[in-house]
What does this fold into?
Amino acid sequence: MVVKKIFLKMITVVFVLALGAHILGPQAEAGTSLKTEPSAAPLNPKALAVVKIMGSGFQAEDRVEITMVKANKGKDVNVAFAEADSSGKFETKMNILSILQGIFNFRFKKGKPTPDPNNPPIPPGKYTLKASSWDSKAEASCVFEITVPPKKK
It folds into this structure.
C-alpha cells in the first residue's frame, strides 16, 4: 500500500511537470543570443547611438529591455527597448536619451542636456549588456566595451 501511494505521487509529479512544460512552451532562454555591432565604441553620445544591438532566440513578439548591468555606480542602466519579430529576432540601437541620462549622467535644464559636475559619465571599460523579455523568461547577454574617446586634434 505504501509503495502504491509513493508510485502515485511520483506519477502525479511527473504529470504536473510535463503539463507545466507544455503550457509554458519551449524555453527560449537556452537558445537566445545577443550581440552588438560594433563590439566596442568610444565614450561619445553620437558613437554610442549608432551601435546596433541584435538578439535572437526570443519568443515571437517578445518585448525586450536591454540594460548595461551594474554600469552606473552599481546600478543597471537601461539603454534600449525592442520587440522581437515573428521569428524571435530583434535589432535596435541605443536610445539617445538613455545614453545622455544613464551613461553620461546629464540632467536637463531648460530643455537642454547639461553635464552634472558632481556625477561624471561612467568610465570606459567592458560592460555586460543584458536583454530581458517582459513576456517570457528569455534572457541573453554579451560584453560591450566603451573605449576612451580619441583625443581632439
In short: The helical segments are 2-24, 45-49, 96-103. DSSP finds three helices and ten strands in the chain.
